[in-house]
Amino acid sequence: MVYWLFAAIFIGIRDLRIASLTCTVAVAVELFRLWHTPALDTFRLTTAGALLLGRVFSLWNIVAYAIGIAAALLLDRVLLATKFSR
Description:
This protein has helices at 2-9, 15-32, 38-44, 47-53, 59-85. By secondary structure, it is an all-alpha fold.
């Protein structure tokens, strides 16, 4: 989702740069889960906090983000190739 959002915002940027930017944001969001303050922990216990910030850090989430971003990049390239081949 974030890949497509960045692709829509940064139209003139190449797809590999968008993918690397998206990976950076995904890793930053996951690393943010390692930062704990009483206020953040209280917010994370709410439904909105769990959805927006998550509760626990997981390396598997980073792997899942990378797979999703790679799939979006591949789909983007396929769609662009079919668009220009017509």
